[in-house]
Amino acid sequence: MLGAFYSSWSISQFGYIPTLWSALIWVLVGALFALIINRETFSLEEKDQTDEKYSKFKELINGITIVVREPKVGIAGIVRVINQSSQYAFPLFLPIYLADHGIATTVWLNIWGTIFISNIVFNLIFGYIGDKFGWRNTVTWFGAVGCGVFTLMLFYTPQIFGGNIVLVSIVGMLWGACIAGFVPLSALTPSLVGDGDKGAAMSILNLGAGLCVFVGPAIVALTFDFVGNTGVIWILAALYFISAILTRFLKLPEEIGKADAPQDEVASTLEPQVK
């Protein structure tokens, strides 16, 4: 978010190349905070190296095999990859597309920064909504379906309304809000498995968070020359709609138990107990 606002200001003041070089300054500032200002003292403890290596190896194997033992965790990982793929795909082609419709790069950077202000706010909101509306429902309808719809709208709004900056900004903020609709996935995924596998389930979710940085640009690189801007947008939107379908399979153990229970047993739990 701050990077987008800074780049918009810097490009207009100094140009593209100086802005690129100025990134080194921010890297050095970050290193200063990490290595000096935020420095901590670590104490080393003597441990049995054999047991420690075995434990780490066991955790690694558990993190890999859990997708076989618990396919739902693998599905959650795929949904997590789709979650932010467009976020890393858009910067590769959308600014050029918007420039063709009268929205300059510096204006786009301001819109991009505003999008993630909306995203930050709705990260908190969807945490609350997820508890009330249901984790799976929130991810399905607000996250997956919402992102699919607003991905398409973010592309077609500049065409239909002649590059109207206000409308593009509103649609962009709604898209950013829906990206946050996937937040309950972090609570849903470890709840799909037992206590002993929660760490492994979260590792798959974290893997998905890392893979989207690769998958988003890869989609653009592999398809743009064949399908152009329009095709890439529809591919990204289609992935969101597919993730909505996949999310419906992420049922909690207690939900599966209720579905498998005999109908008369389920009915008895719904009837008021009169003594």
Q: Oligomerization state of this entry?
A: single chain
Mean of all residue-level pLDDT scores = 86
Number of helices in the DSSP assignment: 11
Under CATH, the topology of the largest domain can be stated as: Growth Hormone, Chain: A
Helix content: over 70%
**Architecture of the largest domain, CATH level 2?**
Up-down Bundle
SSE topology string: HHHHHHHHHHH
Give the CATH level 1 class of the largest domain: Mainly Alpha
Total strands: 0
Q: Uncertain segments of ≥5 residues (pLDDT<50)?
A: 261-275
Q: What would the keywords be for this entry?
A:
single chain, about 280 residues, mainly alpha, Growth Hormone, Chain: A, 11 helices, globular, disordered C terminus
Describe the structure.
With 275 residues, this protein is an all-alpha fold. The protein has two domains: 1-31, no CATH class; 72-253, Growth Hormone, Chain: A, CATH 1.20.1250. It is built from eleven helices and no strands. The longest helix has 50 residues, at 198-247. The radius of gyration is 23 Å and the shape is globular.
